[in-house]
Amino acid sequence: MSAKTLIKNGMIIDGTGNQRFTADILVEDKKIVKIGTVADEGDAEVIDATGLVVAPGFIDTHSHSDLRILIEPEVAPKVRQGITTEVLGQDGISMAPLPVEYISPWRKNLAGLDGDSDEINWEFKNTEGYLKMIEEVKPGLNECYLVPHGNIRMEAIGLENRLPNDEELQKMRDITRREMEAGAVGLSTGLIYMPCAYSESKEIIEMCKVVAEYDGIFVIHQRSEADTILDSMEEVIKIGRESGVKIHYSHFKVCGKKNWDKIDKVIELLEKAKKEGIRVSFDQYPYVAGSTMLGVILPPWVHDGGTDKVIERLADHELRKKMVYDIEHGIPGWDNFVEFAGLDQIFVTSVKTKKNEDAIGLSLIQLGELRGKDPYEATFDLLLEEENAVGMVDFYGTEEHVQLFMKRPEMNACTDGLLGGKPHPRVFGAFPRILGKYVREDNTFSLEEAIYKMTKKPATTFNIVNRGELREGYFADITIFNPETVIDKGTFTEPAQYPEGIEYVMINGSLTVSGGKHTGNRSGVVLRKKGTDVI
Prior knowledge:
This protein is α/β, with parallel strands linked by helices. The chain is about 35% helix and about 20% strand. The strands form 4 sheets. Strands 1, 2, 3, 4, 5, 17, 18, 19 and 20 form a 9-stranded mixed β-sheet that branches.
């Protein structure tokens, strides 16, 4: 491809929220060199964008491509929906740091979220080693990394269900600093996932104090998105208050019909935090169903000691009875997915072995019918046979609530897409769905505001500089789409469908999607924290 690209006659929506205007864009040597009227240049490749919107490349602030980027580095489901940058290391459980002695149990713990593979060398040890591996495979899009709380905890104290002593807490601070120095953009946790769930606020506050020194961000799957969400939010706000860190709630929502009356108070807490001067934001995917590892339906005590212990307990029929009792009766403070979604609204999306591929796409009720067993027993058998490496989709909310949170000023878009098996359709279509359904069809907000929430807003939130906006001198991460046709195509039964209307995607000045097709180009880079900026 020519070193120059000229985008002609496009409807420019620059990411700032300002009104659209018609102009040309000249790209040269990875950057935008001119926006305005540009005469044809004989050595430039020309894209006629008449009738199309030219926007900054979309930024996915909650991604689970952590392992996939090393195996299939083009990550086509993301790029073909217009995403040019994604943030890895979510939910407190990811690739690095990973001490060699913990590789085996950690791979099992990670498998339900990010999958597993024998194709890579798992001895990368830390964030520096992991990010170098990404660079070596030449990623298809730009990658940022959050250092995960669970990985830090594992290196410092192992996988046991206990609190750290003073020496171990200092070690957790030291590991956090080491990984921030290696380029991590912040810290993540997932307080429903092990071993993160074993922690108390003090431990998190101490790590966040380190992150705050770098003006990094704390990204949290909070302890509850259901019955105790108000207490959970108060805990997160306390972490922000006492550490000074920027708070970013992952996949913000309220789960379960009986909890919908808490939504007004949830919003009051967001406003309260801002009045205190605590920096608060959140991301959201545009669907009424979520997706995670099926093992989260098990009571917390089942996970004590890691995945190997989960497998042992699932093989014990007496303990299975206790699991069913706790699921049916609840445990205070525990987000009980079966309670707020129901066995009929939790669906298997991925498995590790061919033996159980017939379970993919089935609800837990249907799984029981297929196996001729009680649905709990069939589910426990599946988790046991797959060593807990099972993905799921769960239905939890309403369109009204999706739109309510979508319009909030704290919101930016994300996919939160698990890439294995029969995934949640958000893997392929979250961003086009916002543009097609919520902007064009439902008029939830303007196209300018939607683009802002996909580009400049997340770039500012994560301190990503020189991206997220169409501006002279910025890197040429550009998405060009048809505003009349853009839409997601995936469904919950057939999710792996690319969207319509995403015509061109440029990453660092290189066309990665042209005419709606992937070009095979991989021109992404690893973005690292340097000082307070991510570059």
